[in-house]
Specification:
- By secondary structure, the protein is mainly α.
- The chain has one domain (31-109).
- It is 51% helix and 0% strand.
- The protein is built from 5 helices and no strands.
- Helix 3 packs across helix 4.
- The chain starts with a helix and ends with a helix.
């Protein structure tokens, strides 16, 4: 008999609903907890430019059992943060760029 037919017949005969209880899950348990996710979330909310490496270094309780990759997974998958990198500024916005811009204007006036 198929599984569904077996369950239907089981209930028709007055069987208990214990047949529908989920089976125990196999595999390695997660090392990250909701508390860990909340801790990382609070730290990122305070300092938005933290990297996964810096978060791991700031928390000594992570040193033993969590890798940088685990922290990255929490940031990206669990908390939904995107990967952002600081973009390079154009030369005109730096101090050296301003000097060269002024020099260029002076030379063009002469």
């Amino acid at each position: 008999m198929r599984t569904t037919q077996h369950l239907v017949n089981h209930f028709k005969e007055g069987g208990e609903p214990s047949a529908l209880t989920p089976l125990p899950k196999f595999g390695r348990p997660h090392k990250t907890t909701l508390n860990t996710c909340a801790l990382i979330s609070r730290q990122v909310a305070k300092e938005t430019k933290l990297t996964a490496q810096e978060i791991k270094e700031k928390n000594p309780q992570f040193q033993e059992h969590m890798s940088v990759r685990s922290v990255k997974d929490i940031l990206h998958i669990d908390l939904g943060y995107e990967c952002y990198r600081a973009c390079k500024k154009p030369i005109n916005f730096t101090a050296k760029g301003e000097e060269s811009k002024i020099l260029h204007e002076i030379l063009n006036l002469e």
